[in-house]
Amino acid sequence: MNDEPVPGQTYLETLQLYYEEEIEGEAYFTAIAERLEGDAREKMQLLADVETRAAEVTAPLLQRHGLTPRPRDELHAEGRKQAASVGAEYDALIARWRREFPRYMEDFARLEAMAPERDLPALRELTRHETAAIAFLEAEAKGEADSARHLRAYLERAAP
Ligand SMILES: [Fe+2]
């Protein structure tokens, strides 16, 4: 029935790791949102929602391959710990993520390159969340009025 090659161990481990990082990410951005106010707080909560959605689109692949992620509580604790280790200054956070996030695009591209065909639609949605986050950061850095539209568009499109 299915002639697809069995996915490699590196693919499976990376898939699980990236899923776990999205769960950490939702706690990370939520923790950062909680120490901000107004507009900035809302934007950080939207980023957290984008992470949640990225995890949701990836979850069926873990199920498909029989992978069990680390417990959610543990991942959330890790995300909060990471949030506590970065400064609270909003513009500095945006600048930091503008430097950091583009390299995740390369990671996601490598994951797609290792993936069985069947996993690609979900993985492309996973990759798209990073595209949306980067578009938000660039718009934010330029001071665009509705920078968060990139995040909302992802959440609307990727709705299950
Ligand atoms: Fe993410």
Give the SSE order as H and E letters: HHHHHH
- What is the overall shape? globular
Radius of gyration: 16 Å
CA distance, first residue to last residue: 28 Å
β content, as a range?
under 5%
Strand segment tally:
0
Helix count, DSSP H or I runs of 4 or more residues? 6
Return the CATH topology.
Ferritin
What is the percent of helical residues? over 70%
CATH arch. level architecture: Up-down Bundle
Find the structural class using helix and strand composition: mainly alpha
CATH class: Mainly Alpha
Low-confidence stretches: none
What's this model, at a glance?
With 160 residues, the chain is an all-alpha fold. The protein has helices spanning 9-34, 38-64, 72-84, 90-114, 120-141, 149-157. It starts with 8 loop residues before the first helix and ends with a helix.
Please, could you describe this protein's structure?
By secondary structure, the protein is mainly alpha-helical. It has a single domain, classed as Ferritin (Up-down Bundle), CATH 1.20.1260. It is built from 6 helices and no strands. Helix 2 packs parallel to helix 6, helix 4 packs antiparallel against helix 5 and helix 5 runs antiparallel to helix 6. The longest helix is centred in the N-terminal third of the chain and has 27 residues. The protein starts with 8 loop residues before the first helix and ends with a helix. The relative contact order is 0.17. Fe (ii) ion (FE2) binds next to helix 1 and helix 2.
